[in-house]
Amino acid sequence: MNASLIMSNILSPPILFFFLGMSAVILKSDLEIPQPLPKLFSLYLLLAIGFKGGAELVKSGISQEVVLTLFAAIMMATLVPIYTFFILRIRLDLYNAAAIAATYGSISAVTFITAGSFLSELGISFSGYMVAALALMESPAIIVGLVLVKIFDVDKDGDFSWPEVLKEAFLNSSVFLLVGSLIIGVLSGEKGWKLEAPFTQEIFYGVLTFFLLDMGLVAAGKIKDLGKTGSFLISFSILIPILNATIGILLAKLIGMPQGNALLFSVLCASASYIAVPAAMRLTLPEANPSLYVTSALALTFPFNIIIGIPLYLYGINLLWR
Question: What whole-number distance in Å separates Cα of residue 299 and Cα of residue 244?
């Protein structure tokens, strides 16, 4: 693998600020991002990427490639939690296996945004409609995780309300804002995109940098919880993203996606949710231990993907697309 790809990713300012945040915790600095700024940064990033995706979707139109990509996105968001659930059941109980499977079946919007930043720095183009794939992959894993619990635990019947589950899956703040921004981008088109450019484009990387600084602080704070998980979950948190990305790359090749889109799709397949799904699992599966599914996604999979995974997946794509 070309080491310059990894160095190019690691030496980008947002990633370096992620390391700075981790260093602050490890060295016991009193650096912190006051609440509710991290939540505001998260909402801004979802709004900006959703709005851009909607505007780009107007440009590209609905083609066969778009339809196949969105279908593949829904398929992966449904299948990943199923096979990861059975892998996790080797060592974990039903509830924790379902919660972690749902976490890895869903996606991390910030990992997706970081991959887009990486592509832009390399001068590799990608399509705005990939944001629609992002939006479609957010919620299905929550439903699948709970269906698995309902199938394999007869005592769980009636313990949670399906209307509440569906509301949490499709109307949680991140999904609602992302989809809403996408629709607004479609409706306002190129004119709206130019009008909002100072807000959605010019400060985007600055906000992403601040957000990753905060993520570094949070991730380093969660590392100590990894000792409770054992080597099985630690290995799972690294190897499953690689497996999921590999499947995503092969699907992208089959569909005929360009390289930039293929990277974003593989990153979506490889990432794990540490916001939307944990919120839903706390509500619907209180038996599951949040320190397992939050820590594995945030303290291991997220750093692995943004530091090593993204350039690794691009390397594999470059080999296949030659």
Answer: 18
Give the CA count within 13 Å in the CB-facing half-sphere of 251: 24
| DSSP-assigned letter for residue 36 | T
Query: DSSP string covering 83-151, please?
Result: HHHHHHTTTS-HHHHHHHHHHHHS--HHHHHHHHHHHHHHT----TTHHHHHHHTSSHHHHHHHHHHHH
Burial 123-152 (b: 16+ CB within 10 A, else e): ebebbbbbbbbbbbbbbbbbbbbbebbbee
For 131-161, the pLDDT digits (tens) are 888 888 888 888 898 888 888 876 655 555 6
Buried b (16+ CB within 10 A) or exposed e, 14-39: bbebbbbbbebbeeeeeeebeeeebe
**Taking the mean position of all CA atoms in its chain, how far away is CA 160?**
26
Instruction: Map tokens 């303290």 to a residue.
Output: 299
Q: Cite the beta strand spans of 208-307 per DSSP E.
A: none
Nearest to 115 by CA among 278, 280, 206, 5: 5
Whole-angstrom Cα distance, residue 77 to residue 138?
Answer: 8
Is residue 47 within 8 A of residue 76, CB to CB? The reply is no
| Tokens encoding 213 | 């600084």
Judge if pTM exceeds 0.70.
Answer: yes
Q: Are 56 and 190 in contact (CB under 8 A)?
A: no
Placement of tokens 């590209």 in the chain = 60
